[in-house]
Amino acid sequence: VAQKADATFVNLISKHGKQEPPPTQHTTAMKLQGIYTEEAFKENVKYAESLALTTKYADEEIESLMTLLTSFGLHDEQLRKTTMAVLDYNALTGKGTTAIAMVLGKAFQGNTTMLAKLGIKFDETKSSAGQYADIIDKLASKSRGFAEAEGKSTLGVLSNLSKGFNELKEELGGFLIPLFDRFAIALQNDF
Question: What is the pLDDT of residues 93-103, one digit of tens each?
């Protein structure tokens, strides 16, 4: 009986490791904008993970922010620059990342009326692409480096420790709970 249980457990572990991850909201947003490629998605995830290492923000928070910005049509370098600008401006002002991202997303689409709330003036004679680049440059010049500086502060370091602990809990829980569920079902079926 113990050998059969061990074999069932090993079989479940190997099956669990081969499962495809479910589609994320970010992949869905990319597909809806017609910009999805596996490579671009992986680059975005890698970027979110790299920011999570140097700022107080968790990779899931950054990916959620990137998803929102992607829904406005931002992608590639514009997406990365805007993401960093949002995090820096949030660290400087305390304004919510979602609110900042909504204003910048709308500005990317040409609706610049809310920019005054962020205190950003721009050259209205430029093309919309030129205006957006100008907006991001001005926002970045006001707040560049604040998110990383905040990540290095005492509170930022404590936040990063907390993120690491939560990541560990997620990884263990995400692996062990389904495994034990399947093991219990397999044992019921086998006995």
Answer: 989 999 999 99
What is the rounded CA–CA span in Å between residue 95 and residue 147? 13
The whole-model pTM stands at: 0.68
Instruction: Give the integer Cα–Cα distance in Å for 135 and 102.
Output: 14
Which 3 state secondary structure label does DSSP give 72?
Answer: coil
DSSP string of 131-188? HHHHHHHHHHHHHTTHHHHHHHSHHHHHHHHHHHHHHHHHHHHHHHHHHHHHHHHHHH
Instruction: Compute how many other C-beta atoms are within 10 angstroms of the C-beta atom of residue 86.
Output: 31
In 3D space, the residue among 107, 68, 74, 93 whose CA is nearest the CA of residue 143 turns out to be 93
Contacts (Cβ under 8 Å, ≥6 apart) of 143: 85, 88, 89, 91, 92, 93
- Residue-wise pLDDT for 156-180, tens only, equals 555 555 665 566 566 666 666 777 6
